[in-house]
Amino acid sequence: MTEKNKLSPEVKEKLKAEYNKEWRKELRSAIPVKERMKISRQKMPERNPEERNTDFYEVNQGLDEKTARLEAQRCLDCANPQCVLGCPVGIDIPSFVKNIERGDFGASIRSLKSANSLPAICGRVCPQETQCEAVCTVKKATGVSVAIGNLERFIADYEQTKGKVHIPKIPPSTGKKVAVIGAGPAGLTVAGELAKKGHQVTVFEALHVAGGVLVYGIPEFRLPKRILKAEVEYLQKLGVEVRLNFVVGLTATLEDLKKDGYECFFIGTGAGLPNFLRIPGENLIGIYSANEYLTRVNLMRAFDFPEYDTPVFLGKRAVVFGGGNVAMDSVRTAKRLGADMAAILYRRSRTEMPARVEEVHHAEEEGIEFHFLTNPIRFIGDDQGKVKAVECLKMELGEPDSSGRRRPIPIEGSEFIVDIDLAVVAIGNSPNPLIPQTNPDLKVGKWGNVEVDWNTMATSMKGVYAGGDIIRGGATVILAMGDARVAAAEMDRYLRK
Amino acid sequence: MAKIIRREKLVPNIHLIEIESPEVAVKCRPGQFVILMPDEKGERIPLTVADWDREKGTVTAVFMVVGTSTHKLSLLESGSEIPVFVGPLGKASTIEKFGTVLCAGGCFGIGAIYPIARAMKEAGNKVITLLDVKANYLLYWEDRLRAVSDEFFVSSRDNYYDCKDYIPKVLKQVLKDGRKIDRVVSIGCTYLLYTCAEATRPLGIKTIVSLNPVMVDGTGMCGACRVTIGDKTKFACVDGPDFDGHLVKWEELFSRRKSYFHDEIRSLCYWENKVFP
User: Fold this and answer.
1) pLDDT of amino acid A1
2) N or C: which end of chain B has fewer CB within 10 A?
3) How many domains are contained in chain A?
4) How far is A457 from chain B (nearest CA, A)?
5) Which chain A residue lies closest to B256 (C-alpha atoms)?
């Protein structure tokens, strides 16, 4: 459900000032509200399911200029815009949308980027339907919200491909060194924010490519790597240094970095520890964590094996356990790698699935099977130690549990066996233990998550902040970025003290 | 990019690689490993560190040529660069004064066991080193290992050195002779580790094995390297690579290590056809 932000008085003031600008007034009166509401939501062009489920090119093709401007006309430019409250990073949505409507794309992207340094990514992977779009006034009136996410993607792509990437003027250097640990969505956001404030930022990344889950987790067909690459290059133009192949905690500890002159730290190491089902046979060959499966394919490019050296099992009968976006990414990857049967096995029902509606819809179009109320109880292997089947139980839904979703209860005697040759476990991740392990002073919660003051993102260590999945467990890219913005503002304050 | 200071063939199919990396050199401890990639298309290869030079800022590893990525690595010349070199990863070996420590190594593990034997010696242990080679011409680093050992044995199948028996038999003989061994440390192929652990099991001598399952990221993120220790699943990259050999579920490890056997052959054929048409 949508958690609404509280806006600070300054932000409210700024929204108001933009709203009252002369051009906005003119634009509002150019088309009557009634006419605006008659325009139907512009469809995102998608590639044909039969074609796209055999390759890794992007599914959504993006709106063109004309359609984007038409879609922007649907926005009523409300005096009291609810969408801004639905956005975890508080983007001034009416400003960037109205600038699209009037065709000032440069102004639109500048406005967008002042609150969100990674718009091409958010435009693709944010769950807008439960955030900004869920509270859109047009949705209340007509049932269908303005396609805010698609517009965000349009304007970000426009800048990357047709426009000139605008590099904001950086204030003179403060001479303060900041270490950001982990080049995922949280870390990259903090880096961008603090670089814009004139601090000297270094991002330390354990893997050999920057991006974190955006590079090893989210597949090419949902987020092309060139988009991410462009965003990282933008940060480098802001003066951010990215150090790859550097594991903070092992290659150097926080203490070592302090000795090197780093004064302030951000931990954005993510939920890098895969959860397993803990059922018999789980270590048989052919059973992957979603992290391993997706890392092999996305980061190591196993889809292009043997041109690339890293292999991945090409299952003909592939099952994925879980109902979130990572499960959808995994099962759609298995289909693309040639599975005849690629199925989701989920222990609850369709309504409880945490995956985005769009992802589920795309998966169904691509021929993915969904088996609900199904829970695995053991894997069965052949004489080579390779998985050949999984035994499952049917479930029924009982009373709601602590998550508010109805608890699945096994139906006795309902065991059945599914023949498989590939299984992917996508039931979530726990926070990466490396930094807490190597910093005993860092206060850690019950689930291994780093504890923070949620108003400032400050940890129990002075000058050390954290955000994203390392404090939340498995969450979303945009929540990580929201944390990062709060942390960056506090870190800036800390450094200026 | 990381610079290769030296790459040389030690014995047929086993190479040494010395990489410039001041940060890793400073942090390296015995039993830890590094991950490297020979080129942008290569696999991430985990290699146990065999030595380091903190002043020069270099790290040395010994590897055996097995699949495509190690083949590529074996062709790189000194002075060239590799795109990925990261470490030190995993937990360091426990080094204490145990009394008498027997270090058993074979294959690439002869190099990898060297820093452990050295550290054990420095910690005041009596060090017995036992090396296993298939043939006399496969032994390397004899002088280096001799220098840190109180007793030094080599077994080669051609009976060129001290005996021809496979390690566990030698190990059993040492124990049968009534020698008091307080700890055994073993690095090498999985079969060597397994047989060492089985040899000491009846006497309950603590036997530490350095496992080398398939890995991808090496930082605990993917779970490719999961092994069963006792009744628990552990990740070799962050919980290991050292484990109690008497608790390892060997059958599973053997099976999982062979996971990509056919893919490895396919990859090699593809690459060889491309590079040596």
Assistant:
1) 37
2) C
3) 3
4) 24
5) A285
The whole domain housing A144 covers 9-44+55-161
Q: Residue A414 pLDDT more than 80?
A: yes
| B197: containing domain | 100-257
**pLDDT (0 to 100) of residue A228:** 93
Q: How far apart are CA A311 and CA B82, in angstroms?
A: 21
| CATH classification at residue A456 | 3.50.50.60
Cα(B58)–Cα(B110) distance, integer angstroms: 19
pLDDT band at B177 (very low <50, low <70, confident <90, very high): confident
Q: How distant, in Å, are the alpha carbons of A314, A389, A390, A393 from that of A417?
A: 21, 7, 6, 9
Residue B179: is its pLDDT beyond 90? no
Backbone angles phi, psi at A11, to 5 degrees: -65, -40
Q: Which residues in B45-123 belong to E strands, given as ranges?
A: 45-53, 58-64, 81-82, 84-89, 100-106
Residue numbers in A near B23 (CB within 8 A): 246, 251-252
Residue A425 to residue A154: CA distance in whole angstroms: 34
**Chain A within 8 Å of B27 (Cβ-Cβ)?**
yes
**Residue B184 is encoded by which pair of tokens?**
């055994």
Beta-carbon separation of B41 and A273 below 8 A: no
Which residues in B lie closer than 8 A to residue A306 (C-beta atoms)? 68, 263, 266-267, 270-271
As a whole-number percent, the residues of chain B with pLDDT over 70 amount to 100
Report CA torsion sign: B58, B63, B68, B74: positive
Per-residue confidence (pLDDT) for residue B22, from 0 to 100: 96
Q: How confident is the model at residue A4, as a pLDDT? A: 60
Torsion of CA A288, A290, A292, A295, to 10 degrees: 150
- Return the amino acid letter for A147: A
Q: Contact B255/A285, CB-based, under 8 Å?
A: yes
Residue A371 to residue A319: CA distance in whole angstroms: 10
Q: What is the CATH number of the domain that holds B14?
A: 2.40.30.10
Tell me the C-alpha to C-alpha distance, in Å, between residue A133 and each of A12, A65, A137. Answer: 20, 21, 9
Q: Is residue B33 part of a domain?
A: yes
Structure tokens belonging to residue B52: 């380091």
- pLDDT at position B106 over 70: yes
Give residue ranges of A with CB < 8 Å to any B CB: 206-208, 216, 244-247, 250-252, 272-274, 276, 282-283, 285, 288-289, 291-292, 295-296, 300-301, 305-311, 384-385, 432-434
- Is 60 exceeded by the pLDDT of residue A288? yes
- Mean per-residue pLDDT, B123-138: 95
Cβ contact (<8 Å) for B67 and A300?
no
Identify whether residues B181 and B128 lie together within a single domain: yes
pLDDT band at A2 (very low <50, low <70, confident <90, very high): very low
Tally of CB atoms within 10 A around A173: 10
Q: How far is B176 from chain A (nearest CA, A)?
A: 36
Q: What is the pLDDT of residue A451?
A: 94
- HSE on the CB side for A79, CA within 13 Å? 0
Q: Which residues of B51-75 are buried (b: 16+ CB within 10 A; e: fewer)?
A: bbeeeebbbbbbbbbebbbbbbbbe
Instruction: Please list every residue in chain B whose beta carbon sits closer than 8 Å to the beta carbon of residue A292.
Output: 216, 222-224
Q: Is the pLDDT of residue A60 over 90?
A: yes
Q: Which among B28, B33, B29 has a CA at the least distance from the CA of B237? A: B33
